[in-house]
Amino acid sequence: MAPRQFEWFVAVDWSGARGERHKAITVAVAHADGGPPTLVERERGWTRGEVLAVLRDELPDNALVGLDLGIALPFADQGAYFPGWERSPEDAKSLWALIEEISVADDHFTATSFVDHPVALRHFRRHGGREGDAFGGGRGRFRVTERAQEAMGCKPYSNFNLVGAAQVGKSSLTGMRVLHALDGALPVWPIDPLPHTGSVVVEIYTALAAMAAGRNASRSKIRSYEELDAALETLGTPTLDKFGPVDDHATDALLTAAWLRTVADDEALWSPADLTPQIARTEGWTFGVR
Q: Most buried of 75, 164, 178, 196, CB within 10 angstroms?
């Protein structure tokens, strides 16, 4: 697949927390012409609905948008998202629709009703030591892309995990409701093919950007402008030239926007060896994983 030329590069650090506005939801933008990445800020933090509105109605015509969340649940390891459940969807878009159907009354794109569903809950690790009998034990079930992340030195967690600092499941489920709400207004690669023109959404894992900038998975979080500038320099990107502490959600977004700009034309990242049509349709992929 020949790589696309994008004009804008947008990274969104996501959050699955309850509530309307979230300081942890952070948006950064880099432009193909160069310059340092910049934050797109909201005084009281972003809402998930505001991010949806940008993606659906306000995005530039030629943007690569990275969302830091899982765009699907594991499927390939057991041949189903929810083995034994007659409502288990056949593909990622049907999964988004099921989560939306069950969680439609939940505010702010949360998915509490879905993880409390008497069948679905068997597959999740939830707070209070509540681990479903189908969670799989240990670190839980993984998608093919997450196994590939491990091979690169990352430390992924299961999208069925809703507990602790690694509760990526909450971010992923809220994100899937937002992706469902897009209703085809924006393609989501690789569930949708990479379009020849226009903007596209991809899944990102901010640790990949940090590793490309010379850090390792255990040191992926950056909490000072000095460290951020050093990482940006490693990527060959102009620095912000600021000093002092900074929130790691902001640095995740800023560094990843810059990283997307540097790697978007790498053909290998659009054609990973393990990304089969079936995996693309059911599990999706994390951009940057070879």
A: 75
